[in-house]
Amino acid sequence: YYNGTPAACTFFALDYVVPNYWNGTSVDLLVAGPNFGGNLGPFLYTLSGTIGATYAAVERNIPAIAFSAGNSGLRSYTEINKTTLSGYPDPATIDAQLAVALVNQIAQNTKGQRIFPLGYGLNVNFPRITSLTNASCVTPPFIQTRFTGGATVDFASFNATSRLFTFRNIVTEGVNACINGDCSLPGETVVVQSGCYSSVSVFTVDYDAPNCTGSANVRPILQPLVGYLNSTSGTNSTIVSAPHLAAVRVFQRKRKKIMI
């Protein structure tokens, strides 16, 4: 048992448990979750502890998958292991079975190979499993998806009476801009919330914007303060002009005044 954040648990496992208790066995895949509650869209990708544990492993060269479940709430393990009124297992058990099925499929298709390319991982979300009361959603098929498309971000809503804030979800163009990957794929948020489907989205840990029109429009407005590295001669040398240095000196003078 380790009391820490999900990412800290990943590092604890890789740097302590594996070298001390695995007898030299290497790690082929890290699986995080299933989490109680979904982690859909780019906004939650940056906040989720479950996904954080996953991309911590990816950044340590280990393929990883984050699993998140639409059901929430805690129940005793004695209840989870019982058959429900619908005749199907508890939602938590079904979520675990779905996770195992996907991992087995991936393992079968990558025998003797690295599971994912370096820097890649998966974000998997299950819908709300209904087995506690009925069988309307107990075998959700897996659908290939992407992060953007119907995704939400928080909105801070102020209550003038209570003088408190609550947060609600809103759909914005910014959080749904399709920049990378296959834009023809459906958004994971839409897929999971539209019915009994599980979403599988591929992510990378490279946050750089791709070399496309958007980047081409952004980079010029950074100049001349932000230069490029010149590697044509085989050695890297920073292109620094007088405006760069002048701007830095002005900033430093202002910063000193502010700190005083």
Keyword list:
9 strands; alpha/beta; disordered C terminus; five-stranded mixed sheet; single chain; 260 residues; two-stranded antiparallel sheet
SSE order, as H and E?
HEHHEHHEEEEHEHEEH
Helix content: 25-40%
The SS-based structural class is alpha/beta
Main beta-sheet strand count, sense and barrel state: 5 strands, mixed
For the secondary structure, the number of strands is 9
The geometry reads as globular
- What is the gyration radius calculated from CA atoms? 23 Å
> CA-to-CA gap between the ends?
47 Å
Question: How much of the residues is beta strand, in percent?
Answer: 15-25%
Strand order within the widest sheet? 1-2-3-7-4
Low-pLDDT stretches: 231-245, 255-260
DSSP summary: helix tally: 8
Briefly say what this structure is.
By secondary structure, the chain is an alpha/beta fold.
